[in-house]
Amino acid sequence: MRHTISVLVENKFGVLSRISGLFSGRGYNIESLSVGETIDPQVSIMTIVTTGDDLVIEQITKQLNKLIDVIKVTDMKELDHVEREMVLLKVVPKPDDRTEVLNLAEIFRGRIVDSSPKTYTIEITGDEKKIEAFVELMKPMGIKEFVRTGKVAIAREGTKKKQI
Amino acid sequence: MKLSGAEILIESLKREGVKYIFGYPGGVVLNIFDSLYDEKDIKLILTRHEQGAIHAADGYARASGKVGIGLVTSGPGATNTVTGIATASMDSIPIVVFSGQVPTMLIGNDAFQEADIVGITRPCTKYNFLVKDVKDLSRIVREAFYIASSGRPGPVLIDLPKDVTAGRADFVWPEIDIRSYKPTYEGNKWMIAQAAHLIAKAKKPLIVAGGGVISSGAAKELRELAEHANVPVTMTLMGLGGFPGSHKLSLGMLGMHGTYYANKAVQDSDLLFAIGMRFDDRVTGKVDAFAPHAKIIHLDIDPTSIKKNVRVDVPIVGDVKKVLTVMNKVLKEEVKEQWDEVRRAWLRQIDAWKAERPMTYTYSDEIIKPQFVVEKIYELTKGDAIIATEVGQNQMWAAQFFKYDKPRRWLSSGGLGTMGYGFPAAIGAQFAHPDKLVIDIAGDGSIQMNIQELATAVINKLPVKVAILNNRYLGMVRQWQELFFNERYSHTKLDDTVPDFVKIAEAYGAVGLRATKPAEVEPVLREAFKIKRTVFMDFVVDWKEKVYPMVPAGAAIDQMLFEEIEKKTEKKLRAVK
Ligand SMILES: Cc1cc2nc3c(=O)[nH]c(=O)nc-3n(C[C@H](O)[C@H](O)[C@H](O)COP(=O)(O)OP(=O)(O)OC[C@H]3O[C@@H](n4cnc5c(N)ncnc54)[C@H](O)[C@@H]3O)c2cc1C
Ligand SMILES: Cc1ncc(C[n+]2csc(CCOP(=O)(O)OP(=O)(O)O)c2C)c(N)n1
Predict the structure, then answer these.
(1) What lines the ligand 1 site, CB under 6 Å?
(2) What is the ipTM of this complex?
(3) End-to-end CA distance of chain B
(4) Which residues in A lie closer than 8 A to residue B303 (C-beta atoms)?
(5) Strands B20-23 and B2-4
C-alpha cells in the first residue's frame, strides 16, 4: 500500500541524510520526497511517499519518530487530506499538434510558462490522477524533458484520525 | 572570563561527573590533551588503539551504569572508533565519543586526516553532532549526555573541529530541552492493568528478560514480580544478571544456544511477558514457529522494538522499572496462594525438562574441556566477579556455565558480536570497580584482535584476568563448518600460528600462566586470582568441543541439536585430525 507521510523536522544540518539513511539502511523505499522550510525557519517539512504493508508502515513511522530531529510524523492515510504535485513538461509537438497541446493544457488548467518555435513548457499542478492523465495525453505529442516536485500533502481542516 | 573550547569541554565533562576518558591523541585534539595535562579530577586513560578506547568506555558504562567517554583524533583515529561505536549501538550502551576534526574552514577539502565521521557514524550512533561554534559546545555536551543515557540508551558522537577547541567563549551551562526528543517512561495504565490481568490468569506464563532490565536498573522489581506471581524467568544473552541465574525460577538463557528447558518453556507457554528485549533472530529462531501458543505482552521503552519481529497482543511502551513498579502494585491486590496452585503443574513440567536435559558437557581427565574452565571460574569466584567475554564459543560457554546473580556483571557484545571486545571492556570495567575481580573469558582468535591493550592494563596496574580458552581454531566458525559444511575447515585453523600467550603477557610486563591438563586448571586459576596484576591464562582446551544445545539457523527454537549427535560421528571426527 502506498502511504504519504508528512514529517516535521528540525531544520538542521544533516537531517535529510538522517531520514534518507533510515530508509536506505532499513530497506524501505522512497517513491518521492519533497522538503521545504515551514513558516518557522527552524522547522522543515518533508513529504515522503512510500509503500509497504501495515507492519512496514508502522515501523517506518516509529523509526521516523525515533530520530532525534523529528518533531512529528503524520501518516496522511489516517486523515482526510489534499495532495498536490507540480510537473514541468517540455513538449515538442509536430506543427499540427501545437494547438492541441494548448487545448489540453487549458483543459487541465496547465500554464504555458515558456514557449519557443518548437517547444512549449507547461506547468501543471494536481493530484496524482490528474497528472498521470495529462502526462499520458502529452506522450504522443513528444515529451522532451520532464521534472516533478514530488508530492506535498496537507490535512483538511477539522478532520480527525480515521479508525483503521 | 573566557575559556578555550578545550577548557569548556573539560569543565562540561566535570559537570557531567566524568572521572575517566579513554582516548588516544593526535594533531587536531592537541588543545584538549594539553588541557588534560594539568587536570586532577579527570584522568585520561591512554589505550593502545582507538577501538580499545571505545570498548573500554563501553565496558566502563556497562559495569557502572554511567556514561563511558572516548576521545580520539580526526581521520584514522575517528574511523578506528567505528566498530566500538557500532558495538555500543547494537547493545544500547550509553557512551559519548569525542572526535577531533580538521578546522571548520578546511572541512570538505580532503584536508590532512579529514574523515566525515559524522556521516560515517550516522547509522550507528543514537545521535551525532558537529560543533561549529565554540559557544554551542557546552550545550551540545549536555545534550549528548542526556541523549546517550535517557530513553533507549546509545552512543553519541561529537565532532570537534580544531578551531572550536582553540576558540574562546564564556562558559555557560544551559538547561536543555530537546523538543523533538521525549522518551516515554510511564506505561499506559490501561495496558498495564490488562497485562497484569493476563498474568494473573495464565496457566503457563513465562518472563523473557532482556538488556532493558539491566539498563533500567529494574532487577529488584523483576524479581519481585516473578516471585510474587510465581512466574519462571528466562533471559536473553543481554539480559543475563537481570534476574538471578541461581534462582529456582530461573531457566537461564533462551535462544540459539539457550537451555533446553528455556526453549521448551517458550514453545509451550500460554503467556510470554517480554521485558526490555527485542526478539533478535538468535532468540526467536524461526519466527513463525516462535511461542505458538502464547499471548505476548511486550514492554519496551522503544516503540520500534515492539511488533518489529513478532506479533504482540499487549504492547506497553515505557521504562521497565516504572512499569513493573505499577504492575507489582496491581498484582499485589490479587491473592498469591491462588497462583501457587495454578502454576504448580507448569513449574513441575519445567522441573521435568530441567531433569531431562540439564546443561551438561562430557568431562575428561586427560584433556581440558572449555566448559570445565568456566565452571571452575564460577566455583572459585562463587559467582562474585565481573565477566567480560570475547565472541564465539568462549562467549556462549561463559553465558551457559556461569550463573549471573546480579546485573552489570556480564559484559558481552551481543548484537554486533565483536571479536576483540572483551579485553578492553574488562579494562574499562576494572576502572569502574577497582576492587572487583574482573575476568575476560576469551578465545585464542578474539584475544588477538585487541591484545595491544595489555600495555594499558599493565601500565595502569590493573589486576584484570584473561582466561583464554585456547582451541587453536576460530572455534565457533569451525563448529558451523563441522556441522553444516562437511568439516571443511576453510581458514579457521590457527594452530601453529597461535602465539605463545604466556610469553606475550610477559613481554608486556604482565603475568602469563598455562594449563594443559584438567588437574592444572584450578591451581592456575587460584594463582591468577591471588596475583594483583594483569594475568593471561592460557588454557589449552579440546579443540573438538562444540557449543550445545544449538538451534540450527532457520529452525524453531525447540528443534535443538545436542551433544549425542557428535558421539555418533566420533570416528569421522578423528579421521579429520
Ligand atoms: C555468537 C553469538 C550467539 C548468540 N546466541 C544467543 C542466544 O542463544 N540467545 C540470546 O538470547 N542471544 C544470543 N546472542 C545475542 C543476540 O545476538 C542479541 O544481542 C540478544 O539476544 C539481544 O538481547 P535483548 O533482546 O535483550 O536486546 P538488547 O540488545 O539488550 O536490547 C534491549 C531492549 O530493551 C529496551 N530497553 C532499553 N532500556 C529500556 C528501559 N529502560 N525500559 C524498557 N526497555 C528498555 C531496548 O529498547 C531494546 O529493545 C548471541 C550473540 C552472539 C554473538
Ligand atoms: C570482528 C569479527 N570478525 C569476525 C567475526 C566472525 N566470528 C564469529 S565467532 C568467530 C571465531 C572466534 O574465534 P575465537 O576467538 O578463537 O573463539 P572460539 O569460538 O574459538 O571460542 C568468528 C571469526 C566476528 N564475530 N567478529
Answers:
(1) B 91-92, 152, 210-212, 215-216, 236-239, 253-258, 276-278, 280, 282-283, 300-302, 305, 319-320, 391, 395-396, 414-415, 417, 476
(2) 0.89
(3) 73
(4) 62, 65-66
(5) unpaired
Q: Is B334 helix (H, G, I), strand (E, B) or coil?
A: coil
Distance of CA B232 to the CA centre of its chain: 23
* Span from the CA of B209 to the centroid of ligand 1 (angstroms): 9
* Residue type, position B541, single letter: V
* CB-based contact A14 B122, cutoff 8 Å: yes
Return left, alpha or beta for B333; rule: phi > 0 is left, psi -120 to 50 is alpha, else beta: alpha
Is residue B465 within 8 A of residue B533, CB to CB? The reply is no
Nearest protein Cα to ligand 1, atom 29: B91
Strands (E), B390-447: 410-411, 438-443
What is the distance between the alpha carbons of residues A142 and A101, in angstroms, rounded to a whole number? 10
The torsion angles phi and psi of A80, rounded to 5 degrees, stand at -70, 130
Compute φ and ψ for B297, nearest 5 degrees: -100, 130
Ligand 2 lining (C-beta closer than 6 Å): B 390-394, 417-419, 443-446, 469, 471, 473-477
- Calpha distance A57→A112 (Å, rounded): 39
* All three cell numbers of B137: 559546545
Cell (9 digits) for B113: 586526516
In the predicted structure, residue B572 carries a pLDDT above the cut 70: no
Q: At what angle do helices B219-229 and B320-332 cross, to 10 degrees?
A: 30
Report the length, in residues, of chain A.
Answer: 164
**3-state DSSP call for residue A18?**
helix
**CB proximity list for B62: less than 8 A, separation 6 or greater:** B93, B408, B411, B425, B429
Distances (CA, A) of B294 to B198, B272, B310, B354: 11, 6, 12, 21
pLDDT beneath 50: ranges in chain A: 164
For the cut 50, the answer to whether the pLDDT of residue B366 exceeds it is yes
What pLDDT is recorded for position B340?
77
Check CB contact under 8 Å for B302 and A66: yes
DSSP label at residue B174: -
- Give the nearest chain A residue to B180 (CA atoms): A71
What is the per-residue DSSP string for B24-38?
Answer: ---GGGHHHHHHHHT
Residue B177 in contact with partner chain A when CB distance is under 8 A = no
First to last CA, chain A: 14
- Residue with the three cell numbers 502464547: B294
- The pLDDT, as a whole number, for residue B573 is 40
Q: Which three cell numbers stand for residue A126?
A: 494536481
Global pTM exceeds 0.80: yes
